[in-house]
Amino acid sequence: MAWIKKTDVAMFKGANWNTLIKKVPNCTPEMAKRIAIKNPKITFFFFCREYMVLETLGDKGIFNPGDAVFFSGEPWYGSAPQCDSYEKTGMSVAYVSLDKIQTTGCYTMADGDAAVDVVCIFAANINKKPLPAGMIELAPNTQVPDGYPYAVGSSDYSALTVEAVQKLQKKGITVLLTFLNNHDGTGWSEFPDATTATNFAQQLKEVVDRLGLDGIDIDDEYSDNPNPNPSSLVTVTTIMKQLMPDIIISKALFDDYQYFTPKYNNQTLADNLTYGWEMSYGGAPKYRLPDYTTLGMATDTLVCGFWSGQPSPSPADDVSWLKTNGYEGVMVYAFQEQSNIDLLGSLVNDWNGNGNWNKTPNCP
What we know:
By secondary structure, this protein is of the alpha/beta class. It has two domains: 3-88, Hepatocyte Growth Factor, CATH 3.50.4; 91-359, Alpha-Beta Barrel (TIM Barrel), CATH 3.20.20. The protein is 22% helix and 27% strand. Strands 8-10-13-14-15-16-17-18 form an eight-stranded parallel beta barrel, surrounded by five helices. Helix 3 (194-211) crosses helix 4 and helix 7 packs across helix 8. The chain is globular and about 60 Å long. 46% of the residues are buried.
């Protein structure tokens, strides 16, 4: 639901172009949407269908078919029959089980674009050896020293392919893989040092590269370690950003304020997270999100979570508050269940107006 399309316009040649973030060639509109989602500061872009020259900009004003041009701030449009512009309005996020990931691509806005912007495949795991029964290594080409944690998944993850990921990406949907602690002494808050964190980040890079993922989502629950390392999360996310500077690093936010204070290489956890989705479901967002802004996260990086199993008494009022206060969007957990599909549909319609949640015929 992130984008409103404005046809036949581009940034006016006489506007303030200091808000230009970057120009990317050889794009499609769907690719451009995923590029824009990776940077919360991007508020709009224009996409060139045909060659265009804006004379006052000199060499920087030459645009070829397939160029996508990204900006922060507010647009000032001029007529451009060669281009279309896209303004960010908010973001919809769906946590979904591996076997139902394609269902997220079945729903469209009134203009035919994808109604789900970000998919978090839920979930791969972190475990030490011996691995739990049925688990497989997801980064078999990365050597893991004895006693270090592994990036693992159920045997079903052997069927997750780059083609399955690309099927969603071609619709403009950003695809993340969630890693969840798994009932042993390892986990996101349990890396004892930078060496251990680096090895795990290297495993994640192998997974991201192999599947063509847009990023990694962090769910820091269900470790059996009673003494987590407060510096673990900032350490591993700093290293992840160094190894994979172009990916999204997101986190399910819950009971984690203590992890936003430590620093590693002068970075905080808030510096490293692209987005956070708050998951203490059911409560009003005004009591759930503002504390994270005091911890260093911007409102345009924060998303409010919803779940039919612990429903909000007034989702429409929640959406109104989120929009009024500049927050980024809504997340729904367990999208594989019809009750949560319906919930996200209601939230998208509340955000954008009725008629913006439509199921594609004959889609799973």
